[in-house]
Amino acid sequence: MTTAKDIMHPGAQWIPAHETLDRAAQMMRDHKVGALPIADKDERLCGIITDRDIVVGCVAMGHDPAKMTCGEMAKGTPRWIEAGSDVSAVLDEMQSHQIRRLPVVEDKRLVGMISEADLAQHLSDEQLKAFCESVYAASMTK
Fold first, then answer.
1. 18 and 71 in contact (C-beta within 8 Å)?
2. Cβ(111)–Cβ(5) below 8 Å
3. Rounded to whole angstroms, how far apart are CA atoms 61 and 52?
4. pTM over 0.70
5. What is the CATH number of the domain that holds 115?
6. Which residues form the domain of 81?
């Protein structure tokens, strides 16, 4: 059985909710990623911030990324998956919530992230096609 831990990109980093968006952008640059999970004061997942969120939700709205926090940008219920979950559960979670990145948790600690690139490396062509059709087709109708 292929698990979430088998296909994830290890070493994902949290960003605390109180950190500013400019700091999030710097971390994304340093780690060469486009998204960071946001942690509350108890190191629990409270959201995910993407580079697009910073540009569209802050900069394009005329806000200062040095003053706006990651916690202020966190919206909705954060989604995640247990490290031992089967890859089919990963796909179900990502497809049903139309998300492109999924934090992987083990013993209540962040251990990695699964992105579209990780899926592309580990899924069959048929699984990848079904994922793309469900996530991208659904996002086009919004």
1. yes
2. yes
3. 12
4. yes
5. 3.10.580.10
6. 4-140
